[in-house]
From TrEMBL:
Membrane topology summary: Single-pass type I membrane protein
Signal peptide: 1-22
Keywords: Glycoprotein, Leucine-rich repeat, Membrane, Repeat, Signal, Transmembrane, Transmembrane helix
Protein name listed in UniProt: Leucine-rich repeat-containing N-terminal plant-type domain-containing protein
Location within or outside the cell: Membrane
Gene Ontology CC terms: membrane
PANTHER family xref list: DISEASE RESISTANCE LIKE PROTEIN (PTHR48061:SF12), LEUCINE-RICH REPEAT RECEPTOR PROTEIN KINASE EMS1-LIKE-RELATED (PTHR48061)
Gene3D superfamilies: Ribonuclease Inhibitor
Top-rank taxon: Eukaryota
Location of the Leucine-rich repeat-containing N-terminal plant-type domain: 35-82
Length: 175
Protein backbone atom coordinates (compact mmCIF):
# COMPACT_ATOMS: atom_id res chain seq x y z
CA UNK A 1 0.00 0.00 0.00
CA UNK A 2 2.90 2.38 0.71
CA UNK A 3 4.51 1.91 -2.70
CA UNK A 4 1.52 3.17 -4.75
CA UNK A 5 1.26 6.18 -2.42
CA UNK A 6 4.96 7.04 -2.98
CA UNK A 7 4.54 6.68 -6.73
CA UNK A 8 1.44 8.87 -6.66
CA UNK A 9 3.21 11.55 -4.59
CA UNK A 10 6.23 11.46 -6.90
CA UNK A 11 4.03 11.88 -9.97
CA UNK A 12 2.12 14.69 -8.27
CA UNK A 13 5.38 16.44 -7.32
CA UNK A 14 6.72 16.16 -10.89
CA UNK A 15 3.46 17.55 -12.26
CA UNK A 16 3.56 20.54 -9.90
CA UNK A 17 7.23 21.17 -10.76
CA UNK A 18 6.53 20.98 -14.50
CA UNK A 19 3.55 23.34 -14.16
CA UNK A 20 5.60 25.81 -12.13
CA UNK A 21 8.44 25.82 -14.65
CA UNK A 22 6.07 26.18 -17.60
CA UNK A 23 4.39 29.17 -15.96
CA UNK A 24 7.72 30.75 -15.08
CA UNK A 25 9.13 30.47 -18.59
CA UNK A 26 5.96 31.60 -20.33
CA UNK A 27 5.66 34.68 -18.10
CA UNK A 28 9.35 35.54 -18.46
CA UNK A 29 8.94 35.53 -22.24
CA UNK A 30 6.47 38.36 -21.84
CA UNK A 31 9.20 40.58 -20.35
CA UNK A 32 11.55 40.12 -23.28
CA UNK A 33 12.08 43.11 -25.51
CA UNK A 34 10.79 43.04 -29.03
CA UNK A 35 13.32 41.48 -31.41
CA UNK A 36 13.33 44.54 -33.66
CA UNK A 37 14.29 46.77 -30.73
CA UNK A 38 17.15 44.43 -29.80
CA UNK A 39 18.31 44.56 -33.42
CA UNK A 40 18.21 48.36 -33.39
CA UNK A 41 20.36 48.47 -30.25
CA UNK A 42 22.82 46.02 -31.76
CA UNK A 43 23.02 48.09 -34.97
CA UNK A 44 23.78 51.14 -32.85
CA UNK A 45 26.60 49.22 -31.19
CA UNK A 46 27.99 48.19 -34.57
CA UNK A 47 28.08 51.80 -35.83
CA UNK A 48 29.78 53.45 -32.87
CA UNK A 49 33.46 53.35 -31.99
CA UNK A 50 34.89 52.55 -28.58
CA UNK A 51 37.92 54.51 -27.38
CA UNK A 52 39.19 54.20 -23.82
CA UNK A 53 40.23 57.84 -23.75
CA UNK A 54 36.63 58.93 -24.45
CA UNK A 55 35.42 58.57 -20.84
CA UNK A 56 36.53 58.54 -17.25
CA UNK A 57 39.39 56.04 -16.73
CA UNK A 58 37.26 54.05 -14.26
CA UNK A 59 34.47 53.59 -16.80
CA UNK A 60 33.79 50.58 -18.98
CA UNK A 61 32.16 50.09 -22.39
CA UNK A 62 28.62 48.91 -21.59
CA UNK A 63 27.94 48.02 -25.23
CA UNK A 64 30.74 45.44 -25.14
CA UNK A 65 28.35 43.06 -23.38
CA UNK A 66 25.67 43.44 -26.06
CA UNK A 67 25.42 40.23 -28.07
CA UNK A 68 22.67 39.70 -30.62
CA UNK A 69 22.53 35.98 -29.92
CA UNK A 70 21.31 36.76 -26.39
CA UNK A 71 17.58 36.63 -26.79
CA UNK A 72 16.72 39.34 -24.28
CA UNK A 73 18.35 42.73 -24.70
CA UNK A 74 16.54 43.81 -21.52
CA UNK A 75 19.38 42.01 -19.76
CA UNK A 76 22.06 44.01 -21.59
CA UNK A 77 24.10 46.46 -19.56
CA UNK A 78 22.59 49.95 -19.68
CA UNK A 79 19.24 48.84 -21.17
CA UNK A 80 15.95 49.20 -19.32
CA UNK A 81 12.67 47.71 -20.52
CA UNK A 82 9.06 48.27 -19.55
CA UNK A 83 7.10 45.73 -17.56
CA UNK A 84 5.90 42.32 -18.59
CA UNK A 85 2.98 43.54 -20.67
CA UNK A 86 4.87 45.30 -23.46
CA UNK A 87 8.59 44.64 -23.10
CA UNK A 88 9.66 47.79 -24.95
CA UNK A 89 13.07 49.39 -24.49
CA UNK A 90 12.33 52.52 -22.44
CA UNK A 91 15.74 53.49 -21.10
CA UNK A 92 19.33 53.53 -22.28
CA UNK A 93 22.18 54.53 -19.97
CA UNK A 94 25.44 54.60 -21.89
CA UNK A 95 27.09 57.18 -19.68
CA UNK A 96 30.84 56.73 -19.33
CA UNK A 97 30.91 53.97 -21.94
CA UNK A 98 33.91 55.04 -24.05
CA UNK A 99 31.61 55.97 -26.98
CA UNK A 100 33.63 57.86 -29.55
CA UNK A 101 32.78 59.72 -32.74
CA UNK A 102 29.66 61.29 -34.22
CA UNK A 103 26.22 59.68 -34.16
CA UNK A 104 24.37 60.09 -37.46
CA UNK A 105 20.74 61.24 -37.47
CA UNK A 106 19.66 58.08 -39.26
CA UNK A 107 21.19 55.87 -36.56
CA UNK A 108 18.97 53.00 -35.43
CA UNK A 109 19.08 54.40 -31.89
CA UNK A 110 16.55 57.02 -32.96
CA UNK A 111 14.04 54.37 -34.07
CA UNK A 112 13.42 53.21 -30.50
CA UNK A 113 10.12 55.07 -30.28
CA UNK A 114 9.23 54.02 -26.72
CA UNK A 115 12.41 55.46 -25.21
CA UNK A 116 11.81 57.63 -22.12
CA UNK A 117 15.38 58.00 -20.82
CA UNK A 118 18.59 58.47 -22.79
CA UNK A 119 21.89 59.05 -20.99
CA UNK A 120 24.95 59.60 -23.19
CA UNK A 121 26.93 61.63 -20.63
CA UNK A 122 30.72 61.44 -20.37
CA UNK A 123 31.55 60.19 -23.86
CA UNK A 124 33.44 61.83 -26.72
CA UNK A 125 31.29 62.64 -29.72
CA UNK A 126 34.10 64.76 -31.19
CA UNK A 127 32.21 68.06 -31.09
CA UNK A 128 29.71 66.75 -33.63
CA UNK A 129 26.24 68.26 -33.60
CA UNK A 130 23.51 66.61 -31.56
CA UNK A 131 21.77 64.45 -34.18
CA UNK A 132 18.41 65.77 -35.38
CA UNK A 133 17.10 62.21 -35.07
CA UNK A 134 16.77 62.90 -31.34
CA UNK A 135 13.44 64.55 -32.20
CA UNK A 136 11.92 61.15 -33.07
CA UNK A 137 11.92 60.18 -29.37
CA UNK A 138 8.50 61.69 -28.70
CA UNK A 139 8.17 59.95 -25.31
CA UNK A 140 11.60 61.04 -24.08
CA UNK A 141 11.37 62.53 -20.59
CA UNK A 142 15.03 62.47 -19.49
CA UNK A 143 17.98 63.36 -21.69
CA UNK A 144 21.53 63.62 -20.39
CA UNK A 145 24.21 64.79 -22.81
CA UNK A 146 26.53 66.42 -20.28
CA UNK A 147 30.28 66.04 -20.72
CA UNK A 148 29.68 64.27 -24.01
CA UNK A 149 31.57 66.71 -26.22
CA UNK A 150 28.75 67.58 -28.58
CA UNK A 151 29.27 70.83 -30.45
CA UNK A 152 27.43 73.18 -32.76
CA UNK A 153 23.86 74.30 -32.42
CA UNK A 154 21.09 72.43 -30.69
CA UNK A 155 18.89 71.00 -33.45
CA UNK A 156 15.37 72.44 -33.83
CA UNK A 157 14.01 68.89 -33.61
CA UNK A 158 14.64 68.95 -29.87
CA UNK A 159 11.54 71.15 -29.57
CA UNK A 160 9.46 68.11 -30.59
CA UNK A 161 10.35 66.48 -27.26
CA UNK A 162 7.25 67.81 -25.52
CA UNK A 163 7.47 65.28 -22.67
CA UNK A 164 11.04 66.23 -21.78
CA UNK A 165 11.27 67.09 -18.08
CA UNK A 166 15.00 66.68 -17.52
CA UNK A 167 17.72 67.97 -19.82
CA UNK A 168 21.11 67.89 -18.17
CA UNK A 169 23.17 71.02 -18.78
CA UNK A 170 24.30 71.26 -22.34
CA UNK A 171 26.74 74.04 -21.47
CA UNK A 172 28.99 71.31 -20.13
CA UNK A 173 29.20 70.01 -23.65
CA UNK A 174 30.97 72.87 -25.49
CA UNK A 175 28.37 75.15 -26.98
Amino acid sequence: MEKPLHVFLLILELYVLQSTLATKFSSSRESLAHDDECSMLFQFKEHISINQSASDPHAYPKVASWKLNRSDCCLWDGVECSGKSSGHVIGIDLSSSFLYGPIKSNNSLFNLIHLRTLNLADNDFQFSQIPSGIGRHLHLANLNLSYSLFGGQIPNEITQLTQLVSLDPLQKSSY
